Amino acid sequence: MQKTLIVDALNADTAQDSVRICGWARTRRDLGTCSFIELNDGSCLTNIQCIVDNGTAAQAALGSAAVGAALSVTGALVPSPGREQRWEVRANEIVVFGQADPETYPLQKKHHSDEFLRGIAHLRVRTNKYGALFRIRAQAAQAVHAFFHKRRFILVHTPILTGSDCEGAGEMFRVTTLPSGEKNPGKDFFTRQCRLTVSGQLEAEALAMGMGRVYSFAPAFRADNSNTPRHAAEFWMVEPEMAFTDLTECMELGESLMKYVIEQALVHCEADLRLFDNFVDKGLLTRLRAILAKPFARIAYAEAVRILESSDRHFVFPVVFGMDLQTEHERWLAEEHFEHPVIVYDYPREIKPFYMRCNDDKETVAAMDILAPRTGEIIGGSQREERLDVLTSRLRETGKEPDEYWWYLDLRRFGSAPHAGFGMGFERLLMLLTGMSNIRDVIPFPRTHGTLEF
Ligand code: 4AD
Ligand code: MG
User: What does the pLDDT average to over 4-21?
Assistant: First the structure.
């Protein structure tokens, strides 16, 4: 018999003589006349209650199956007398696919800390919280695609294996097939050094300079040593790139994207988000709605520095013009000063990558970061340097060999045009959406410094 997902069974319009539900037992209670099993199949937060009468064939088949067991339950979908759910299943046939030994199954019905669950990432998706989290993640990804599709951006797939360092921060993972000890890159698979990409931007620029508006949504890899709750070694980035435009449109796009994803999550993941509002981050829903309610603040970097300098907050890193803003500064600006996301633009040239467009003041570049309360930087982007001579000298200034960027420079030799784009850290956005404070808990199998389990 065909299976019904629990989400569909719970939303059924009418009772049904026979449905078949498959899932994992979340609870089991044995009473004098029957057993109650709460079943969950991951399709939604709510369990469906199954009632198995004593002395029936179904109960014999159920046997001693306990919390964690995988079951198929066939029976009538009937109105539930309980207030919590509309429908329940009166079982008349049960198949136990797999038992879970109550002595050793780690997910007994009690509170488990995020740290504990991280150690069993292969099982944590069976908890209410992580099921909700990964459904919100899926909905957010759908919303990203819907947003760009509506705006006629073309999805592009940029390479994961690359020879070029986009950010120039030297935080790349090397990829090699050379036996250990062999150092000659000429003998390697690609006969040259190969790395995992830190960003698809340079290739996205090439594609935008022919297709106009493109975006990629792909994994990025960074070997930064910073063991923080905001950095993962493998994370997902959304990178739109637009030709014939400037920094202002880029800011507008970033703000609209963030708002659209939040709005869609509020519409489609209401129950899942409510769990986070109740148990993870009180006030989350109010805060998300407030983000939608008014435009993001916008300030130049110089102004941000002035505001930070005149604040009476003690920062671990004192603020001076020319420094990169640290998470403590980003969070203070968004969380306490503006109490709203803020777009900081026109950063000092010295602290930003070679590809950002130099402003006329020769001191700053047309960069923008979107900073959010609690999370800090979620989006980083810029207008790109479209002038061949300026870009070439920027490459030299930042210690790069222009010849190695020959194809990137070609984009400025042939039909160059103003263009801009950004990268949005998808996990950072999920942290904002769920109130989770550690990036390790918004990606199913996190890869961070010193950890490569699963
Ligand atoms: O600011 P970033 O480094 O910008 C770029 O990589 C540009 N090439 C993007 C572009 O313009 N196309 O990274 C973009 C975003 C950051 O704002 C942050 O949200 C996220 O990527 N990010 C990370 N997320 C998780 N773990 C890390 N280690 C991250 N590094 C950056
Ligand atoms: Mg950045």
Answer: 97
Rounded Cα distance between 132 and 145, Å, is 20
* Structural contact between residues 388 and 352, judged by C-beta atoms closer than 8 angstroms: no
Which residue's entry shows tokens 């994207």?
257
Q: What is the pTM of this model?
A: 0.97
Which pair of tokens denotes residue 128?
């209410």
Whether residue 115 is predicted with pLDDT greater than 90 in this model: the reply is yes
Structural domains for the chain: 6-110 (2.40.50.140), 124-441 (3.30.930.10)
Contact 261, 253 (CB under 8 A): no
Pocket of ligand 1 (CB under 6 A): 166-167, 199, 201, 222, 224, 231-232, 235, 237, 239, 377-381, 421-423, 425, 427-428, 439
Q: How confident is the model at residue 185 (pLDDT cuts 50, 70, 90)?
A: confident
Joined tokens for residue 384: 């790109």
Confidence band (pLDDT; 50, 70, 90) for 85? confident
Ligand nearest to the CA of 356: 1
